[in-house]
Amino acid sequence: MLSVNCVSKSYDKVLAVDNLSFSVKPGDIFGLLGLNGAGKTTTFRMILGLIEPDSGSITLNGEKIDYSVTNKIGFLTEERSLLVKMTVLEQCLFYGTLKGMSRDSIITKLDILLERFGISDYKNRKIKELSKGNQQKVQFITAIINDPVLLILDEPFSGLDPVNVELFKSVIVELSKKGSMIIFSSHRMEHVELFCQKILILVKGRTVLSGDLNKIKKNYERMNIFIKGDIDIDKLSKIDGVLGISHNNDEYVVNIKNDSIINSVFKAISKCNVTKFVVNEASLNEIFLASVGEAYEG
Fold first, then answer.
1. By CB atoms within 10 Å of each CB, which of 3, 152, 211, 252 scores lowest?
2. In this structure, what is the dihedral angle of CA atoms 128, 134, 135, 139, given to the nearest 10 degrees?
3. Is 246 left (phi over 0), alpha (psi -120 to 50) or beta?
4. CA distance 26 to 17
């Protein structure tokens, strides 16, 4: 288990991380979220042992993280960190060797992963000759080639089309099923909702919301009703508990305070020509914006 316990870190007079605590168990996919400057990168660097916290502790399976433990960790950075004049093979041999792998085991694992990602033909091509999407695949391969116990993914879907997002997702889920602990960070909340079971939202280094994602969504009472048809917007907007109405493509989205308002909305449009009436929980994006906004206002 990864345990981050009451960790704080300052740079001069700036408090980057403020008394942060969370844990990630084997098989967990944990979403660490926040705006730019929220403290995510500092947290990653402390977990990797690149910088020391001012206070608190970070352990992986009960051990302090140092160079004896980092071979068990994989990290995909938000920025490209590939050496573009190297071939794909040379790049993976370099990273695999840093992780304590033998040349034969690196090549064996690399061949499997290149085939999985559909880029076997690029094994001896230089990184700079690859598209951004294929460079991202190579970067992901370097992060998982050592079958990491802990995998940190910072914006892993950058530059990927929807088909490759699904491919990455399937590999990430497989790793979690094998017992890897995965920390996932993204500004795209719909990506987080794909597979994160637990999340934590940081604002200015401080936790403003954390817990099981399904429970968070249930406890966030606001809901959305998606309606297609000819409806009286003025009539709906006057219902107590209707917080707002927006028009999205060919349907209306009615934001309501909680589920007790559903019947009132349904009665108001019951005599209208309606072809769709669907009630959904608030999206993680709405919850994120509300949590971050409240923290800044506070």
1. 211
2. -150
3. beta
4. 24
Nearest to 111 by CA among 93, 127, 130: 93
In CATH terms, the superfamily for domain 221-281 is YebC, transcriptional regulation domain (3.30.70.980)
- The structure tokens 């817990």 sit at 211
What's the full length of the chain, in residues? 298
| Burial of 148 from C-beta contacts in 10 A (0-12 / 13-18 / 19+) | buried
pTM, two decimal places: 0.89
Alpha-carbon Rg of the chain, whole angstroms?
Answer: 23
Residue 10 CB neighbours (<10 A): 15
String of b and e for 238-272 (b: at least 16 CB within 10 Å)?
A: eeeebeebeeeeeebebbbeeeebbeebeebbeee
35 — phi, psi (to 5°)?
-70, 170
Q: Considering only the top CATH level, what class is 2-212?
A: alpha beta
Distance (Å, rounded) from C-alpha 76 to C-alpha 26? 19
The lowest-confidence range among 13-27, 245-259, 284-298 is 284-298
Dig out the tokens for 184 from the structure.
């996932």
List the alpha helices (DSSP H) in 59-201.
88-98, 103-116, 132-144, 162-177, 189-195
Rounded distance between C-alpha atoms, residue 105 and residue 140, angstroms: 17
Give the whole-angstrom CA distance, residue 271 versus residue 266. 9
Kindly list the domain boundaries of the chain, sorted by start residue.
2-212, 221-281
The SS3 of residue 173 is helix
First to last CA, the chain: 33
∠ CA 76-18-191, nearest 5°, is: 35
Cα separation, 81 vs 58, whole angstroms = 25
Chain centre distance of CA 156: 8
pLDDT in tens, 193-235: 888 999 999 999 999 999 999 999 989 989 999 999 988 889 9
